[in-house]
Amino acid sequence: MEAMTFVLFGATGDLAKRKIYPALYNLFIDHKLPAEFSVFGLGRKEIADVDFQASVRESLAQFSRRPADGERVESFLRAFRYSALNVNNTEDYQKLLSAVEIREKELGIPENRMFYLSVAPEFFGTIAHHIHENGLGAGKGWRRLIIEKPFGHDLESARALHQQLSKAFTEEEIYRIDHYLGKPMIQNLEVLGYSNPVLQALWTNRYIANVQITANELVGVEERAAYFDQTGTIRDMFQNHMLQILMMVTMHLPQRSTPEEVQSKKRTIVESLRPMSKEEVGSQIVRGQYTAGMNGSVPVQGYLDEHGVAPDSTNDTYVAGRIWIDTPFWNDVPFYIRTGKRTHEKSTKIVIEFKEPLKISTEANQDEAEPNLLTIEINPMESITLKLNTRNAGKGGKIEPVLMNFTTNSKDAPEAYENLIHDALRGDATFFAHWDEVELSWKWIQPALEAFEENLIPLHTYAAGTNGPKAAHDLLAEDGFKWW
Ligand code: BG6
Residues in the active site (predicted)? Predict the structure, then answer.
């Protein structure tokens, strides 16, 4: 891998401490960073290099999956420098440029620069503009930009943001992180597809009855009301993570593919999502908000009583939806998606329900077999389970479900951010969100955003610690299905 400079905006922020430094450190230990690299942390406060290094050391001690001690961590930290920067101040970018150049010369490394914007999205445009205007991105090497969701608040703001960024970086240089795409089981979907002819053959509307994608959480709004009460689950989870999982699970890859091929398959899916009008939202989407209830054995308050939430907020903490993909592969297969906070469990999973088995009625057996299910658990377990039916001779020939299960032991596996930062440093965009996907996702979901805002559809409640509002279950019952 080519030597580079990692320029981190928001270096004193929470994401940097919890995710970015531990990711870089673990990549360093695994020899997945270039032999020579330099890191510039940027933030508003003035901080001396040694104090900055000490704070990185502290975050590693707290959040790294590997111990951070001894000479290893010291040699890692020697790459770190800090510069104070006001994002609107041209002079600060000039100072940064000369500091980066001096360091590149000291190390004898090329002008490859990775800009990571770990800051609030309202600063993305300004920072990109200044990087461009002040020549930070005009070195002889490559330049890349990593940003994190949210990419806009709706279709219009997403487009405006894209326009701003496009003035400074090309699409190939922009790496949009959706951390779900860094999860090992989501990355595994690509491999499951192309390396198993058995599954490939079944991956169509001919054999699949429905697909269910769940991302349930135990946590509530926590300390994030200022953000979340303006955002809701529909923007926080559904428009990005959930639709990305949908694309990953439905694209057909006949073989190992290039990032461009993956992006093009994903675009086909999101382009083919059946549009809904604002008036149709109510029949396809359920929105919910939690009321007081339990988190395990601990009583917890309802959303409206959470600190920082408007007492009359109609914000959604739960969304379930039925989606159709109008392609020859997926015509007539409903995709059910649900995600909510303060449910009864932390569980992210995909369940593929295969079409109804033949009704079995023999002398020995009057019972009905259950449908075959393929369950892919993403979090907190990582496993794949195929449920088949078999005759149990010991029980008078009764037909029983049997589970074929594979559970990964991923305690030592890299975290999402390690995978993603490593890919971005290598210039591999396979597991990043392309602008087309982002724009088309916003476009598809825009009528729902409007229906929510205008209160055109009911706001269902569910008690904290339960399995979501009843309406989310009715959505499947209408089609003769249930959530697995
Ligand atoms: C984030 C959302 O993107 O994903 C959070 O902003 C949510 O609200 C989190 O809790 C869930 O991520 P994970 O990896 O714990 O499933």
Answer: 241
Q: Is the CB of 236 under 6 A from ligand 1?
A: yes
Q: Which long-range contacts (CB under 8 A, 24 or more apart) does 246-251 make?
A: 246/213, 246/323, 246/335, 246/337, 247/437, 248/181, 248/186, 248/189, 248/190, 249/189, 249/211, 249/213, 249/350, 250/211, 250/325, 250/329, 250/330, 250/335, 251/193
pTM, full prediction: 0.95
**If residue 392 lies in a helix (H) or strand (E), which one and from where to where?**
strand 383-392
List pLDDT tens digits, range 448-474.
Answer: 999 999 999 999 999 999 999 999 999
Considering all CA atoms of the chain, what is the largest pairwise distance in Å, rounded to the nearest integer?
Answer: 86
Contact call for residues 483 and 212 (beta carbons, < 8 A)? yes
CA of 341 to the centre of ligand 1 (A): 10
Q: Provide the pLDDT for residue 367.
A: 61
Give the residue numbers marked as catalytic. 241
**Gap between the Cα atoms of 66 and 124, Å rounded:** 32
Give the pLDDT confidence score for residue 256 in this predicted structure: 82
Is 31 annotated in some ligand binding site? no
The list of the chain residues with pLDDT below 50 reads 364
Q: Distance between CA 263 and CA 261 in Å, rounded?
A: 5
> Tokens 């770990």 map to which residue?
118
Question: ipTM of the predicted structure?
Answer: 0.99
pLDDT of residue 397: 85
Distance of CA 269 from the midpoint of ligand 1 (Å): 23
Question: Which pLDDT value is given to residue 395?
Answer: 85
Which residues make Cβ contacts (< 8 Å) with residue 28, sequence separation at least 6?
Answer: 72, 76
Give me the pLDDT at residue 110, please.
Answer: 97
pLDDT at 358: 59
Which residues neighbour 227 within 8 Å (Cβ) at sequence distance 6 or greater? none
Q: What is the DSSP code string of 266-298?
A: HHHHHHTBPP--GGGHHHHEEEEEEESEEETTE
Cβ 148 under 6 angstroms from ligand 1 = no
341 marked ligand binding residue:
yes
Is 411 annotated among the ligand-binding residues?
A: no
Beta-sheet pairing, 293-295 with 174-177? unpaired
The number of residues in the chain equals 484
